[in-house]
Description:
ten-stranded mixed sheet, Rossmann fold
Amino acid sequence: MKFFSVFFVLILSASAELTLPEILTFQNGKKVSSAEDWPARRSEILNIFRENVYGVNPVERPADLTFELIKSDAKALDGAATLKVVKISFSGLGGKASFKANFFIPNAVKSAPVFLLACHRTESENLDVTRKVKSDFWPVEAIVKRGYCAASFYTGEVDPDKFDNFQNGVHKIFDKKRTKNSWGTIAAWAWGASRVLDYIETDLAMDAQKVAIVGHSRGGKTSLWAGASDDRFAMVVPNNSGCSGAAISKRKEGETIAKIIRFKHWFCKNYNAFANNEDNMPFDQHMLCAAVAPRLLYISSATQDKWADPEGEYLSGVYASQAYELLGKKGLVSESFPKPGGFRHEGNVGYHLRNGKHNLTSFDWHKFMDFADAKMK
Ligand code: GTR
């Protein structure tokens, strides 16, 4: 079976000479030969990404984390859902802070599975809890109709999406002295997703064992890092996540590391060493996808989103499958890159290639839910 996936990779890879760091080999060269070896290899992989890409969090769950229900409506969406807006508060050396999380919980479902969106797009246009303004980016009505809780938080409230020398958001609250491996903004947003999950664990109306973390683009990089590093997420959905998300950096297709580090606040400083130096990277994003195994991973691309390298996103799922197979699961079951509109839903790694541009649309959401219906519900 292992031989099988390597074989596919060789056939599928656009450049046959693309050699990637091995998922199933420890840094000291020892082979990862059994499922028992995997937790140690997974934590090694996560540390590589902490140290070199997203940075090290100064804190996980703060000791004084609190949740306050600041808005609720048991008859939201014409009675189909209960709306809860929860304020998540905490403090650190830099003072106190909070952000909100929104939940539309279907009234017809006991202990509902959840789709949690890490939303980086304008709150008023995409996360309107009054539902006067509707957007395909967070299609609450459709999600609830299919029996899932539609949850979201606005990433900008956790940490602003701009380079401000880390003087605002959670960096202001938790950073001591900043070093080359200090967390960037993507790690801060992922940290926020985990704090929302901390709340979900306290609310019996939702099933904390069945939470999918979703994000698009920079939010997709966030959902992948959140879901890879926090194994309480049952399903991980990086949509059009591209460079530093699911796409393989060594392909150098579309956005490269040299290009993406113009967003100086997204990553830790150590990442800069890999700009125009991908060939020497001792890791690549397929390893991060593997860190989700054996949980559900759903990678989604769009045909016109060349900047995000759709085939590179797909190949990460193909390569990551080795870890799934080691753990006795099927990964991405696929013999070829799908045709536009095509999807692969058989194994624990799902994939689709939507027709169209860089975006998160109804088509994407329904495919995530089709996969979750079969695998997570
Ligand atoms: C682009 C960036 C991408 C992607 C995108 C987005 O400018 O180059 O990596 O994150 O923004 O978040 O929409």
